[in-house]
Amino acid sequence: MRLTRQEAEDCKALVIDSNPTSRSILMNMLRDIGVGQVSQTSRVTDARRELETREFDIVLCDYHFDNSPMSGQDLLDDLRRSQLLPYATVFVMVTGECSYTKVAEAAESALDSYLIKPHAASALEERVLQARHRKKVLRSIFKAIEASDFTTAARLCQARYQAREEFWLYAARIGAELFLRVGDHASARALYQSVHETRGMAWAKLGLARIDLAVGQMATAAQTLDSLIEEQPGYADAYDVLGQVQVEQGQLGEALETYRTAATITPHSITRLQKQGTLAFFLGQTDDATEALERSARLGVTSKMFDCQSLVLLAMMHFDKRDTKALGRVVSNLALAHERQSDSPRLQRFFRVASVLQALQARQLAHCASLVRELAADIRCEDFDQQAATNLLAVLARMRQNEVALEEAESWVTEIAQRYCVSKASCEVLCGAAANDKVYAALIHEGQHDISTMAEKAMAHSLSGSPGAAVESLMAKGLETLNAKLIELATAVLHRHAAKIADHAALAQRIQELKARYCSQGTQVSLGQASSRSAGGLTLRA
Fold it and tell me: How many CA atoms are closer than 13 Å to the CA of 445, on its beta-carbon side?
């Protein structure tokens, strides 16, 4: 079976190969089987830019690149992790015998197929046909994903797996990922467990650990991950998840070492370098933070994988070192990012934070105070996330260090603490963001204590036989502080005592509205733009 003429002519292909001869051969082979549009690139960075901005039906990528430690597999992993490669795209890795084992192992996850050099045109056509056939067979699943109907897509995957229909293993991984995304942990666990028991796939074992992380079973997750890393010490995704488990447990120093290991395994991963640098910043390890974040910026400051929060943290450290020139470069980069997405409140805040530092450095104190008040005015906004909170704390701490005090500053710190102190780890991160300023650190710990006291008083109603009153109290305090922990605790009490609460449905609706507005990050510590709970998983781009 060959591609029909129309199918081939409509196909758009990208060839990624550093060797001009190999690149030319692959392009000619694609044209010979009728592919209508064939693009090429010789460098991984250029390929990443192409794949970020355009969609291709077929990608042929060499495994090894001359003069670059980054492999084709590294590129694929980064693209999948950052949701920059649709699952409808056929990705074929081209490899020599020496790297065959690594590529064959990768094929179990997100890779469509692979070719071993030297290869004939017929082999390439066969691989492309096989991969496109899979896309056709699973079309209903991909259409549901494109429509963001993740539950339907997950059920289709589950049915295909249970019936052992064509591509059942591939469907199982996508289905488990989708169940995890929609919060159906039981279905996700059942799929991962079944695959792990029958096929022993590393991604299935990792999936079980991710579910334990999602439901708060940290000790079990850590045990599974330790076992997985012992079996496969080069499995970078396992370190991603272990780092998040350690962060959730408040083991920030251990988490930094874990993220550093992941970044060492994949030295060109922008996202992993940013996690390492961000956590190092909060722990006061500025040399490590600067090196990791500068490296991530050099790799792809214009890439969609790059989170401009890294530029904000670099601005802080350049300010601390009184490096006016370096601070100016960062501000310019943030200005360009803001121009490209002028409607983004997040980027607007980032640019404003950097501008505060510039104004403070130039001793333009009135302008500095005005900008800070604009930042603080958003503290109760729904989109004022944890990053915005830590950035404001970092700015306020540096103002105090430079003997510039605002009388409202302490009340702002208290508001931030009450909103974002959801765990011991989050409290430590907030203190780290405030450069462990004694006054602000005390206010942050006091805010954490206030939240614990509110929770205890509310739960006392439940213990005394009035769970409805407990839910009402948690909701009221959650709305007052915008604290996700209180709101999610209200959900837990409501579910546990549903039979005893007369207006259960009405309360559930009100809680859901609060969760939608203020619990998008859950009760986790954020080290990047994307949710940390997606660490180690397949990211499904619609």
Answer: 9
